[in-house]
Structure formats: C-alpha cells, structure tokens
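User: Structure with guanosine-5',3'-tetraphosphate, tokens only please.
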Amino acid sequence: MALREEIDRRRTFAIISHPDAGKTTLTEKLLLFGGAIHVAGAVKSNKIKRGATSDFMEIERQRGISVATSVMGFDYKGVKINILDTPGHEDFAEDTYRTLTAVDSVIIVIDGAKGVETQTRKLMEVCRMRKTPVMVFINKMDRPSKDPFDLMDEVESELKVRVRPLAFPVSSGPTFKGVYNLFEGNLSLFLTDNRQTADAETVDVTLDDPRLDGYISPFTARLKEDLELVEGVYDTFDREAYLRGELAPVFFGSAVNNFGVRELLDCFIRIAPSPRPSTTVQRTVDPYEEKMTGFIFKIHANMDPNHRDRIAFLKICSGTFERNKPYLHVASGKNIKFSSPTAFMAEKKSIVDAAYPGDIVGLHDTGNFRIGDTFTEGEKLKFTGIPSFSPELFRYIENADPQKFKQLSKGVDQLMDEGVAQLFTSRLNGRRIIGTVGALQFEVIQYRLEHEYNAKCRYEPIQIYKACWIESDNPEQLADFMKRKHANMAVDKHGRDVFLADTSYALTLAEEKFPDIRFHFTSEF
Ligand code: G4P
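Assistant:
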C-alpha cells in the first residue's frame, strides 16, 4: 500500500474521562466491536484503585499493565485504529496531557448521572489549547441519568465547545432501550442479551418502520418528539467544525451493556481525522513527506530493577519508519538504528518492520532519551506542542543517604526525563524542588529511587502555589522582577526561569506590578 493510503486509513486517538465514568469499559468494548478481542474482560483495568496511595505493589502492577495497553492498534473495516491509553488515576494527569500531544482526536467519556466532572474539564482545556477534535460519549444511560438535552447544555457550557448529537437515547435508566443513530438515520436494537461478545443479534429499524412501536413502546412518541427537537435546536452536523475542534458530536450509550458502542465506532472511522500536520520550531511537517520524522511522547521504565531498560514511545509524524535504518536522534546528534522496534496490536506487542504516520513504535532505550526528543533522517527539527504543565504540588527533595549522592542525582535526572515529575532548582539556595500534578508521584519517586537506583530521598515542605515560566520584551522590568523576587526564582531542567508564586495573591500582585512580564502555566508559549 502506498504511503498516502497508509496515512489516510489511520485514526490515532485517546479516550479520556474523569475516573469511573467508563473509559476502561468503553476501550474494551471498542476492541470487542472492532474484532481485536473476542470476549470482554481481556483488557485488564489499569486503574489504581482509590485508597491505594501507599500500595506500591499496586503502582508496580499498574506500570506493568500500562505498557501492555499503552497503545492498542487494530484494523476495522479497512481503517487502522490506534487507541492510546491514558492513566485512570488523576495523579497521573500529566501523563495524560502528554499522550494528548500524540493523538489526532479524542473521545471524552462522561457519566450520564454525574455530568461533566473536574478531570474532564482540565483535560478538555488541553484539547482546546491544541484544537484537537473531540467526540463525547455520554455513558451509563442504563442508570437514572440527567435529561439528554440538559447533559448536552452542560457539555456545551462546561467544556466550552459547541455540540451536536449524532446518537440519541431511547429512554434511560432501567427502561433504556438503545440509541437512535442520527448519523445513519436508524435504530439498531439488540434482540438478544450478550454483553461479553459483539455477537448479540440486532435489528435495524427506521423511524417510519411499522415494527418500531413493537420494539420501543411506550417510548415511540417521545423519541419522535426528541428527534424533532434535536433537528430544531441543533444545526446539521458540520464535519469541518468538528475537525477544527469547534464542534463536538455527542453520542449516548451504555458501554457495559454494549449500547451505542457500534454507533460510536462506525461514525468515528468515518469522521475522525487521519494524521494531521505537526509543528516544529523550524517548520510544519506534513505527514505525507517522504522522510521519516517523529518524537517521543512517553518513556516507560522496566519494572525489573535488574534491567533498567526503558521503552520510549515514538509517534511517527511523517514518512515511513523502518527497522534497522539509522535515524538522527537530534538531541545527541547521533545516528541510531533500532533492531527491534515494537508495534502494538490489541494487547500484544510484536517487532515491526515498518510504521507510518499516526503509528506509535516502542523503542528500546538505555536511558538516553527524553520526552520531546525528535528523530529524523538528518534534518534538525524540534517538535513543539509537548509542553510541561505547571505542577500543583511541590516539595524540596533531599538526599537521605550521603553515600549515595551520585545514585540519587542519576535517579532523579532519569525519572524527570521520563516525565514522572518536574525538577526546579532554587536561585536562592540551590535546593532542588520537585513539582508534581498528584500526591502519589512523591511516593512513586521515593519508591523507585530506592528500588531502581539504590538511593534514598526525603522531602521537606515548601509553600508554593504555582510555578510560572516567565518572559518579557522589557529587559529592565525582567531584571527588576528577578532581583526583587530572587527568593521565589528557580530554573527548570532546561535552565529556563521560573517564578514560584507562594500564593495566588502573590501571583496576581506580581502580574499587576509587572505588566510587561508574561506568566505562563505551560513551558511552551
Ligand atoms: P474508568 O476507566 O473511566 O475509571 O471507568 P471503568 O470503565 O472502570 O468503569 C467504572 C465503573 O462503571 C465499573 O464498575 C464499570 O463496570 C461501570 N460501568 C461502565 N460503563 C457502565 C455503564 O454503561 N453502565 C453502568 N451501569 N455501569 C458502567 P465497577 O463496579 O467499578 O467495576 P466492575 O467490577 O464492574 O468492573
């Protein structure tokens, strides 16, 4: 198949949700309906159960599973689908943010009883920033749920995106019958109840089919009214607006009961984007370019402390990636060949000879790669859009075993390269500060330093509200700011200046007093 065809048939996306909305269940059902697995239950939950904060075995278990399910690729109706997994636990939100840099679209799962929740809002901000096309799947309609129109209004106002339903529920709660497919103009009803496989018998009926009433009575009139209202309230579906990230098609269903999943998948493969151009500092890279380019968006350490090898996940952005062909690792200037790059099909890994834009390949790494590293056929490119996000929790990190200073430094460096957390060095006293998105990361770092690097750390509290990357076109004001705020200044691992505001008030005050300074909450601006 020619490169162009390979690219056009790829759909690389992530499913995101607030914990418990049904991301894992929907992922599994997509694999089931896509024919990648045959029985539900094959994909292990990658969730760290709540309350498992100090259960390190659970963390290790999660890390093991999440390599296996990091990317789930499969072919469905001639389309190559790559689902990128995102961690279920909100403390790992930064991993999710980074995964979003490697996808061309997103499916957001929302619990129909709970509506839009905090984590969904945060993740949507990242999608909005990147103009990622999103689809919304409102799940658990088999439970007593909010009114579908209210849910859509909520999505619109809370996620700040226009919506357009493409599937609509027939009743909800215990009498939930299924979804009317507005995209195809029919209703697919299950005649048999088989939730473990995708083999249940179904019948497709249209609105004017005389059998309709027999199947969904007493909800026929209500469905017709609802559909009229849908057509009256919402504009017809505008795919271009969806592709620009301005309009979110909405689907309803119940993943655990298989309702609405096929409708979602069949529509997804038709409207979701194939790989899009990527931006670099130097230029825009078109996926159809002959030469291979790609960047690392995730690094995964081996669980076995005796084999500290890592897998770096490379997202192919253009050209064809080939096994055993030397590629320039732009950060080190070295040419590197990969003899066993892995591809991910469903939950299996296998060595791959060629991969195309939209695909993810796993590269063996002995500790030389960092998140954001670019590989090319010689051109010195740096992909953008892989920012660090301002952490929310901060602690000083200190060496707890003077004999093991070197091990600690190496461990901390490598864990930061993997993106476990961010490291800042205080300008005032040179002390190192770890910033994370979730509390769990501090324990993960401590545990991994001990078990993988034979080093011990301890933490000390520090009062910081936010870390902001700063820049200004006014050098005098910047110098004045840095002088006055010396005690709150730090550098990140790339040597960039960061202001550590101790309270939200201090930040507001700084913004008012120094109008020529821009305070950024992501490392890329
Ligand atoms: P997550 O990955 O977003 O965190 O959610 P997950 O799929 O694990 O689903 C969370 C819980 O919600 C699970 O129940 C799951 O079975 C249930 N669930 C998912 N989809 C639906 C649905 O459409 N309807 C209903 N009623 N429930 C749904 P659990 O009790 O936490 O786990 P389990 O023991 O059932 O697996």
